[in-house]
Amino acid sequence: MAEQQLVYSSKINKIRSFALILIFAGILLMYGGILSKKIGWLMLTFFILGVIFVLLSCVVYLWIGTLSMKAVPIICPNCEKPTKMLGRVDACMHCKQPLTLDKDLEGKEFDEKYNTRRYKREAAKKNSDEK
Ligand SMILES: [Zn+2]
Q1: Amino acid 3: pLDDT
Q2: For a pLDDT cut of 70, what percent of the chain falls above it?
Q3: Which of these, 103, 94, 105, 100, lies nearest to 72 by C-alpha position?
Q4: How far is the CA of 109 from the centre of ligand 1 (A)?
Q5: Of 60, 51, 81, 79, the residue nearest 13 (C-alpha)
Q6: How far apart are CA 83 and CA 92, in angstroms?
Q7: Considering the entire predicted model, what is its pTM?
Q8: 130 CA distance to ligand 1 centroid (A)?
């Protein structure tokens, strides 16, 4: 199998860029509304969609706020800058260094699947079997 060179970005950064895209999309849609003001229903549709997009991005920004509070602040071992991580595995915001809070996963290849509920259940089951 070919060696995979995947770049993981921090989850908070991902959500942040998603919210930014939403805002731009909303503004573009409203701009489209201004351009199509001759056609009443089209203008209305563009405006309503634009407002929905901007409101959605506000919700996403609020969500990031609560997520950041829950995130664990750590110092990245690679670039020594402070970063925050969500879940069991995440990437550094600055250097994209994969990070884990779980000692069991140390040294393992970074994989988003370690954050899924299914993996957590399986790991818990394995632990209880060993005892
Ligand atoms: Zn780093």
Answers
A1: 43
A2: 88
A3: 100
A4: 17
A5: 60
A6: 6
A7: 0.63
A8: 35
